[in-house]
Amino acid sequence: MFYFKQIEINKNICDELKTWCASNMQTNNVPFVLLDSNKFIQECPLFINWTKEQELIVKLVVGIKVNANNEQIETQTPHIDLMDNNRNVALNFPISGCEGTCTKMYKLIKGEQINVDLPDGTTYSKFSEDSEFKQVAQFYLTQPTFFNTSVPHQVFNDTDENRLSLSIRFESNPKRLVN
Ligand SMILES: [Fe+2]
Predict the structure, then answer these.
(1) 123: Cα within 13 Å, side-chain hemisphere
(2) How far is the CA of 81 from the centre of ligand 1 (A)?
(3) pLDDT score at 179
(4) Which of 63, 68, 95, 121 could form a disulfide with 164 if both were Cys (CB 3.0 to 4.6 A apart)?
(5) Across-strand partners of 105?
């Protein structure tokens, strides 16, 4: 099972994405927001060149916000955010407030998965109240990270700063990179 892989990407590319996020990410407290991917593709040429080298095509661009001390109720339990099983690997970038926050990944050992199909074509899954999980992996989003969104996960933000990250989804999984 692929969980995550942290990779090196040129600082200029990471800075381009941070600058773009400063004026294009959600300013409300919604944890998961679909951003304008056409605008992203036009305005982030360094990153788009990198994706071409990797034979990746950008499909969706998502802003993920986990407020200080996991203030939003949706961020207080594990979830899955998935397009489909052929496109379950996202590339996540730290944008701000990521230091000291941890992403934990789990295996469901008891309880039920509840799938909610969203209008944008993605599926958000939560779990029944009686669910129990076993932790299978964890990472700190201190650098770009390929990440299996079909594994239940939760971000822990015990800091006093809101945590912003950018999640890029591709037309198909980056097999070359994650194997
Ligand atoms: Fe998520």
Answers:
(1) 17
(2) 5
(3) 61
(4) 95
(5) 137, 153
Cα angle, residue 170 at apex, residues 29 and 73 outer, rounded to 5°: 20
pTM: 0.94
Residue with tokens 């969980």: 3
> Ligand 1 mean position to 141 CA, how many Å?
13
Q: Which two tokens stand for residue 83?
A: 């397009």
**Which residues have CB under 8 Å from 161's CB, separation 6+?**
68, 96, 97
- Is the pLDDT confidence value at 123 over 90? no
Q: Which domains does the chain have, with CATH numbers?
A: 4-171 (2.60.120)
Both tokens of 172, joined, read 């198909």
The count of other CB atoms within 10 Å of the CB of residue 31 is: 18
Say how many Å lie between the CA of residue 154 and the centre of ligand 1: 7
Distance 80 CA to ligand 1 centre (A): 6
How remote is the CA of residue 110 from the centroid of ligand 1, in Å? 20
